[in-house]
Amino acid sequence: MGTQFLKIIDSEEVRKVMNGIKIRKEIEEVPLEIAHRRILTEDIYTAIDLPPFNRALMDGYAVRSEDTFGASEDNPVILRLIEKIKAGESASKKVEKGTCIEINTGAPMPEEANSVVMVEFTDNKDGNVHIYKSAAHNQNIASKGSDISKGSLLLKSGTLLTHDKIGVLGATGFNNIKVFKKPKIAVISTGEELVKPGEKLKYGKIYDINSLTILNAVKTCGCTPIYSGIAKDNYNDLKNKLEEHLDADVIITSGSTSAGTGDVLKDVLNDMGEVLVHGIAVKPGKPTIIGSINNKPVFGLPGNPAAALMIFHIFVSPFLRKMASMPDDKKSESFKFKIARRFHSAIGRHQYVFVKIENNVAHPILKDSGAITAVAEADGYFEVPKNVEIVEEGSEIEVIPLEIY
Amino acid sequence: MGTQFLKIIDSEEVRKVMNGIKIRKEIEEVPLEIAHRRILTEDIYTAIDLPPFNRALMDGYAVRSEDTFGASEDNPVILRLIEKIKAGESASKKVEKGTCIEINTGAPMPEEANSVVMVEFTDNKDGNVHIYKSAAHNQNIASKGSDISKGSLLLKSGTLLTHDKIGVLGATGFNNIKVFKKPKIAVISTGEELVKPGEKLKYGKIYDINSLTILNAVKTCGCTPIYSGIAKDNYNDLKNKLEEHLDADVIITSGSTSAGTGDVLKDVLNDMGEVLVHGIAVKPGKPTIIGSINNKPVFGLPGNPAAALMIFHIFVSPFLRKMASMPDDKKSESFKFKIARRFHSAIGRHQYVFVKIENNVAHPILKDSGAITAVAEADGYFEVPKNVEIVEEGSEIEVIPLEIY
Known about the structure:
CATH class of the largest domain in chain A: Alpha Beta
Number of domains of chain A: 4
Strand order of the largest sheet of chain A: 7-4-6-5-9-8
Distance between the termini of chain A: 48 Å
Radius of gyration of chain A: 32 Å
Oligomer: homodimer
């Protein structure tokens, strides 16, 4: 009789094994222009005050507030206009008693001025500015360092640089920034029958789907995929492919994981490193292998497309995101839907089921894990715990989308 | 007294104006390798059957099911092994009465065979295979075209090519694929006081934050940003910059929108095209301008970073996503949090408030819209409708994240 799996273990145990895998993080410096969605490796303190000078918040006149006391509509104070400055310019004169300087929003306050009167409360009559309202001290001024003072903590280590945070770094003058290197993930498909999409399909061959799927999924985890092509399903070919990619941080294969003839990943791993997991109590994806070579994790996904994709999402994606220091996985945010039909689950195994969302109802996709159409139709998936046999029609399930956009 | 806004209008009216803007969509063909997150422009029908041949689903023996009738543990049927085939190979012989062919998962069924007996229910004794269980017709076989038959609809026009859908296209042999061209969005900052991040900051100048913020935000909407640099805040400079970028699909500026001296976007738009909106009843972002030049939309965001970012999210981002044919905005999925303190809103204006999430509670960020630190701290924002004055402490609010990852 055929070989059996070494030992089928539960998802929880698999996660424990994976938590034990050591992760090495490297740092690089990149220009801010290409730092979008990278992760800060250190706390960022500002090197400048913001604003860097006392700055007018309104268009109007820079005045000494004491000059304007008692001004009203009926009894304006009249100040002599001595200069005009725009944002980006600075005044050449001081605002001495009885004078004012026209100022634009964003311009630095002239010396001696301590208040800005909004243009709406003034009238310029041939260089004599009529002020119709008294101005409070510091009115319409953002003081130097009032937003953030030089040397203050701006962003914490571990911050994901979304578009807004990139702007914040620019605003405080940063040009290059230290971020975690993106982990490099080698992706290998195995199988004598696989042909690269676009090439001619001879009888007995099928197109490789997993390379494309996994390569793009790896990107969504903040990692850089390395396309490694297709390995034949024999010991030497697979071993050579693995050796070729030992400079990657993680290797992901698909296929060659079952216990039948010609499935060789387990043997290769046993010789080159070790097998940590062979067989998980989940459906689909039972024949998954997790191993390591020189402390480098190797994930052996099943060959069936739906199973490979599901195992990637459940076990590999959280690991890669942790490795890439991506913060809490927003993708794991789930959406609640009613289920369109009664669903019978496999007993004794966690089951993960693709669903299609139509009219706000989740339809389980009941196809075998080799079916491409299951993947074509899927909007997301839901989980049925080990001890649940039946999910009743109309009950609420949590659907995890395959990819957030 | 200073110039006033032409006409402040409500958000709903702004959306109506924007819905009236004509969107032109262009198509291009790209290799599948770079098609991730692009949008299909046509229904995709398969050019091949899947599987492309009758395919073994298990490792075992290809047999004629009628040969195995009556087989049991105690009384096995014995078949002569005439060939062995792996996945990717095809048999040279037919399975004639009394014979069998060893077959691997994924290999094409040999002629005349109509069933696969799993290796677990057999024993190979020197070329005589003992079969311990009778095999049903078509057992452990995926028939040609059973997953999807040639000419069937695989993916619909408008599908976003997430990693899984890319795989599906590969599996059916596609190499190049027609997708919508990414709209090109020119991003211009205006202001005499602005300096490019990383350059030396002279007195009176500040770093440009909006270019970096908006450029990266544009990417998250499925569009290609074009960095256009900083325009001076005067009529000719801004006009020249706009003319330079009339080949873009949309132009986004920031700054130069207020009614004060030196704020010139309105005048330039009036001469080059038209102003559709000048002033929106929202806080922050009241002085927003929307215009068009030769039917090309121009969004004039306020110069203040927090206001520019907010207006981008509320009005520009949905427009760009629509233009890029991105499907329903998952980013608009909101997360519910309790608010940490009582919040007083501006009456008569929709208000949008940045929040920081700490310990699962939303803290409104109460800073003016020029504050960089407001943007540095923000995790998302919430909306206060026009007619709501007070949001009580502890009440539940819907927080929209700034960027999903």
